[in-house]
Design brief:
- By secondary structure, the protein is α/β, with parallel strands linked by helices.
- It folds into 2 domains: 176 residues, D-Maltodextrin-Binding Protein, domain 2 (3-Layer(aba) Sandwich), CATH 3.40.190; 212 residues, 3-Layer(aba) Sandwich (D-Maltodextrin-Binding Protein, domain 2).
- Helices cover 46% and strands 14% of the residues.
- The protein contains 21 helices and 14 strands.
- The strands form 4 sheets. It has a 6-stranded mixed β-sheet with strand order 4-3-5-12-6-13, with helices on both faces. A 4-stranded mixed β-sheet has the order 8-9-7-10.
- α7 runs parallel beside α16 and α20 packs antiparallel against α21.
- The longest helix has 16 residues.
- The protein is globular, with a radius of gyration of 23 Å.
- It starts with a helix and ends in a 5-residue tail after the last helix.
- The N terminus is likely disordered.
């Protein structure tokens, strides 16, 4: 991972805190050539790996990093493009990773914990545990029962839309319940010259959300969990039902999907060139004008099979892990993890992202209308998934599954794609 390794190493320093030279004296607040203030700063020096590369995420990062600096931390930030970070995370963790890095809950966290590539933080949780619900505590544990993860926030995926665009087209979002309702609305928007569904998958991961929702609605939540874990095969006929249902909305998706990232697609929504987008609620961060943000709303992905209704939702949990390099800088790394688990961290982000939702139970309940919608959506669902690339093996999700979806979007044969997916799954080393 050249960008992380080269750039990270060039800016990373190892603070040993040793006294320079035999017989060095401490006089007038100087210890080993450094003032007490300098020594304290060095004691809280931490390297941080961040995949927060889009503008809204960078803004959030900058806010909490400023708060951490005020709290006495000296953070050596190593920011890498989001997709590069995700696709090369295995190499990163086995190379020279930063002490602390942002990542995800679910299987993707547990996978690295089981491989011994991240550091357990039970002692951190003894300090921050009272601020989190049992659900977040369980989501932060590895398969061995130890804590590895500090959850920071969450967000659901849904169908995002602008209320004014729907009103102008005479479409009532609350009436879009079934797949037939959804397609009928797409036809209305298309007739009015709009792209019904803004869709970009240049990054490779964006399409996983659409696949998951159609799979939930077609085959149920249990099938999703079995498929992502390898308990059912990709050659199972139910996978083709998912692909075929997806094909039925291809005429209403952006035609140049593989040339656009998710935020390019969101821009179509912001500029009223598209009516809807199936995306995580984090897309709200791209709505810079308060009036545009106030116009943003969401509704649950429509029902396909009444047997499963709209009972499942994607609601991933984001947070931070400590790599194995943190063991050489344990005190500072764990202190930063505790800070990240505090309301000081969350409050700094809330000040710049009013629609954000936080894991910390001590944060005030959201007052932003879009944030309230997110809470209501998740509370209405029976099952919550973490998102395909977090529920499945990381060495399968990216790049194997991501590439397969891009082939499908480009018009590839779904039967051949499913056979290839199964062959590649079978070729993976034991988890």
């Amino acid at each position: 991972m050249s960008e992380i390794f080269e750039d990270g190493i060039s800016r990373r320093s190892v603070i040993k805190g040793s006294i320079a030279g035999a017989g060095a004296l401490a006089v007038g607040g100087v210890v080993g050539g450094a003032t007490e203030a300098e020594a304290a700063t060095r004691a809280k020096t931490v390297s941080l790996g961040s995949n927060q590369s889009d503008p809204a995420a960078v803004k959030n990062d900058n806010a909490w990093l400023a708060a951490a600096k005020t709290a006495g931390f000296n953070i050596k930030l190593n920011r890498v493009d989001h997709n590069t970070f995700q696709n090369q995370i295995n190499q990163y963790l086995q190379g020279t990773p930063d002490n602390v890095f942002n990542w995800f809950a679910g299987y993707r966290m547990q996978f690295f914990a089981a491989k011994g590539l991240v550091t357990s933080i039970n002692d951190v949780w003894s300090k921050i545990g009272s601020q989190f619900t049992a659900g977040y505590k369980n989501a932060s544990k590895g398969l061995d029962g130890k804590y590895y993860f500090v959850p920071t926030g969450w967000y659901p995926w849904a169908v995002l839309y602008r209320k004014s665009v729907f009103a102008d087209a005479g479409v009532d979002a609350s009436k879009i319940v079934t797949w037939a309702d959804f397609i009928a609305a797409c036809k209305v928007f298309q007739a009015k010259g709009l792209t019904p569904i803004a869709f970009g998958d240049k990054g490779g991961w964006e399409a996983m959300g659409t696949f998951d929702f159609i799979n939930f609605r077609t085959n149920g939540f249990k099938f999703h969990m079995d498929l992502t874990a390898g308990r059912v095969k990709w050659t199972d006929p139910r996978v083709q039902k998912t692909f075929n249902n997806w094909k039925s909305i291809f005429p209403y998706q952006s035609k140049n999907a593989l040339d656009m990232n998710w935020d390019d697609a969101t821009a179509l929504l912001i500029n009223k060139k598209a009516a809807m987008q199936v995306m995580g609620a984090f897309a709200a961060g791209n709505f810079k004008d308060p009036a545009d943000l106030a116009d943003l709303a969401l509704f649950p992905f429509p029902q396909i099979d009444p047997a499963y209704g709209r009972e499942a939702v994607e609601a991933p949990i984001d947070g931070y892990l400590l790599s194995n390099s943190a063991s050489k800088n344990a005190s500072a790394s764990k202190a930063l993890a505790a800070f990240i688990g505090s309301t000081a961290y969350a409050s700094a982000i809330a000040a710049v992202a009013p629609a954000a939702l936080f894991a910390n139970s001590n944060m005030p309940k959201p007052t932003n209308a879009f944030a309230k919608q997110q809470v209501e959506l998740v509370q209405s669902c029976k099952y919550i998934a973490q998102f395909f690339d977090r529920d499945s093996r990381p060495d399968f999700a990216s790049p194997i599954f991501a590439n397969a979806l891009q082939k499908f979007i480009a018009g590839g044969d779904s039967v051949a794609i499913a056979k290839d997916l199964q062959a590649q799954w079978d070729a993976l080393p034991p988890a």
